[in-house]
Amino acid sequence: MNDANNSAVPAGGPVPGPVRVRFAPSPTGTLHVGSARTALYNYLFARHLGGSYILRIEDTDVARSSSEHERSIMADLAWLGLEWDEGPDIGGDFGPYRQSERSAAGLYAHAAQRLLDEGKAYYCFCSQERLEEQKARMLARGEMPKYDRRCAALEREEAAARAAAGEPATIRFRVPETAIEVTDIIHGRTDFSSGVIGDFIIMRSDGGASYNFAVVVDDIAMAITHVIRGEDHLTNAARQVLVFQAMGHEPPAWAHHSLIMGPDGAKLSKRHGATSVGDFRGMGYLPSAIINYLALLSWSPAGEREKLSKEEMVGEFELQRVSKSPAIFDLQKLNWLNGLHIRDLELEDLRQALVPFLKAAGGETAAGGEAMGIATGAEKSSGRLAVAETAVQTSLVTLAEAPGLIEEFFMLTPLAESEAARELKEEGSGAVLEMALADERRWPDAGDGSAEAVTQALEAARALIKEWKKACKQSDILPKRLFRTLRIALTGRESGPELPFLLSGLGSGTIRQRLQAAKEFTS
Ligand code: GLU
Q1: Residue to substitute in 37, 56, 220, 233 for testing ligand 1 pocket (most ligand atoms within 8 angstroms of CB)
Q2: CATH superfamily of 8-261
Q3: 455: enclosing H helix or E strand
Q4: Does the beta carbon of 212 lie inside 6 Å of ligand 1?
Q5: pLDDT (tens digit, 9 = 90+) per residue, 93-109?
């Protein structure tokens, strides 16, 4: 392979008509973040240009593929917000969209027959043993192993008759002697020589199509204009160019993006920790943060911005701005972006996103159980949970951290067990408590926990605290005494959520009971 990169990025092959791209996962496992990035680049590219983004399931490896994996990949793509325009579930004009169904419909066999008829492919009857011996001999001579073309010379009718009579046979592509040029939008131009490519199998002896053949048959049938995928497929592109040409079609424009590496420079794998989209969902990452992060792994918009919504990325995405440098996975940066995306959520969306995490953590303590009960609708919706969720929103890195922080609103330490309660005997505390108790009618209440009720309660709490501060100043009570007294009285602890959140969230029943108990404690 001779890498001849041009400094100017070529635009790729001629592309008539509307843009059509495909994401073509093999359902042999769950969706890896690397594949999610491939899907994302296809999605952004298509949406930016008003084209179509197609989901094609490449399930020809029957032993390793499963419909369960297919379902989970589709669920993860949908969760990420990468909805497709055509696919196995929704159909489209270019179906079927599963290779197993295309195979059953005879589409690959039909295409292979055409190549046989035109002499561009031939039956091969060589046994596995013979092929292995031949390979070993070439390796021993220090040569690149490739098929020695023994069956290429067979007479066409005779070979067809043998195959028709049931003799096991593969179909091989007759690789022409030619220079192969793959002009890639990200990599520039790469020249391959067909001399190193042996006559490869396009149909296996069991009647199934090989990957390099099925992909080209499908890309032609589905009118794919751009193939965007990982650079591990760049050498496949050389074979695929030959098949396109043999079938009388211009190849699509190619764009092979770099792969995701771990911090040690090795391909990102389980060894590095979380790798699947499902892992990251379970750890409390938002889909908007994941796609933002994955996009930036080798693409950048003009300017310095890093936090981008899906819509903003669609508006700006260009393959010309995708770098071919390896992409190193950086959890710190994903964490940073996740925090920013969490801050951006509307309260209702945050509450929704937190439900599974509260549910998972809920069984552990009575307080957690109460929070969970409210989150899942088993208990009456309460302003306390909504205020708690609002309070933690600004400090979360992942959603999974929320239950621990929210519990502080539900797990109030009784004063009798509180070390901090001693401080309630300090001068000024009694006056603070009396003042707060006297204002009972003005205590805020977040009611049903709607975003509006929470906002109003917080505003009221801040206004009330401001007035108490003024009153304290007139009585020579330091602000510190005001804040510490109320916090300790309400929670039994010295640290925790800010006072406006406590006052808005706890509800007047709890506030009254805690302030009264604290007052008894002062004397
Ligand atoms: N099924 C292939 C894979 O999962 C897709 C290759 C392609 O996009 O051509 O790697």
Answers
A1: 233
A2: HUPs (3.40.50.620)
A3: helix 451-474
A4: no
A5: 999 999 999 999 999 99
